[in-house]
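pls ignore typos typing on phone
nicotinamide-adenine-dinucleotide + seq
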Amino acid sequence: MKIVFVGCGDITKDSAFICRLSRKIDSVACVDLDLGKAEMFAKKYKIKRAYSDYETMLEQETPDAVYLAVPHHLHLPMAKKALENGHHVLCEKPVASTLDESLELCEVSRQYDLKVGINYQYRYDKACYAIAKAAHGGDLGDLYYACCNVPWHRENSYFTDSAWHASLQQAGGGTLITQASHIVDVAMWILGGKPVSASGINKKMKFQNVEVEDTFMGILELDNGRLIQLSSSMIAEPERCITMEVFGSKGTGLYQGHFFPKSRFVGVKVKKKKPPVRGLHALVASIEAFRQWIFDDRPYAMPLENALPVMAAVDAMYRSANSGRMETVDDRYLKYLD
Ligand SMILES: NC(=O)c1ccc[n+]([C@@H]2O[C@H](COP(=O)([O-])OP(=O)(O)OC[C@H]3O[C@@H](n4cnc5c(N)ncnc54)[C@H](O)[C@@H]3O)[C@@H](O)[C@H]2O)c1
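k done
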């Protein structure tokens, strides 16, 4: 797969390193507004050419896929451009900075015979997968609810080095959309329902000079009656692992992630199932699964449509935090699901 990298920032360091190690991926170009950064990046990750302008790169390169890892408000316009130029897209999570933009991207993508994947790589995290398969296979009995905690830590440089993180318009929010949307995705997947109502509270506990929340707590109700309790922050001192507990009538699945993810079951014995595509880390597996989707038409866990319920849930949780009431989830995304 010939791939170009858009945005030479934090996550692309990992993705480009992974692609460099794969014999099946050819890293043909990268682009960043800062040409010096793009050139250093190209040198470090053995990428053939570096650019400072996205459209120029698209005029000159003929990749199979465009990997987008830029501020959230750029996902929609840049994914559209990639599609117009005939390229498949692997877009970093979230789909976009708002639900409206996410729905627009989905609508536009249907005009093309091209694939758009959203890199919610926890779908390929072996510990999340083991819990999901145990839940779906009935090992945990009737499923009740999940408690998720994302106690992460960010320094002030998180907002000064990447100013878009501090902007509501560019990021779409803070810890909920940027960090916790991964776990919202896997919790909904494990509990097997679509979000219907949400409540939440967001706070700026530590970082006062930014537009987005550093702490979010919320509850999500699914259409099958199951519940997700969520707390997420970027102010934990020190940072702790993500945890998720999934409670069922027969037993409980416990997740701890994310660099060295672990799953464990209490009250029940479970034979753990392994993800269909494996890698040292979920990100490795997600990129390889995307490649197999493009070339072999094997299913990818996160086609754009599958990421829309996450955006709808996040949107309702933010609306609730603003209104102070429980909010109904906007269900316009349903028409895009099979
Ligand atoms: N999957 C994951 O676990 C994971 C982890 C971290 C970040 N992300 C996602 O990856 C994306 C990028 O996040 P990041 O942390 O790497 O951000 P970052 O700020 O570190 O990097 C973004 C890069 O994009 C560049 N950029 C901005 N506008 C551009 C333009 N018009 N053309 C070319 N380059 C441009 C910036 O100069 C910067 O180098 C976001 O969607 C984020 O949510 C995903």
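The mean pLDDT is 97. DSSP finds eleven helices and 14 strands in the chain. more later
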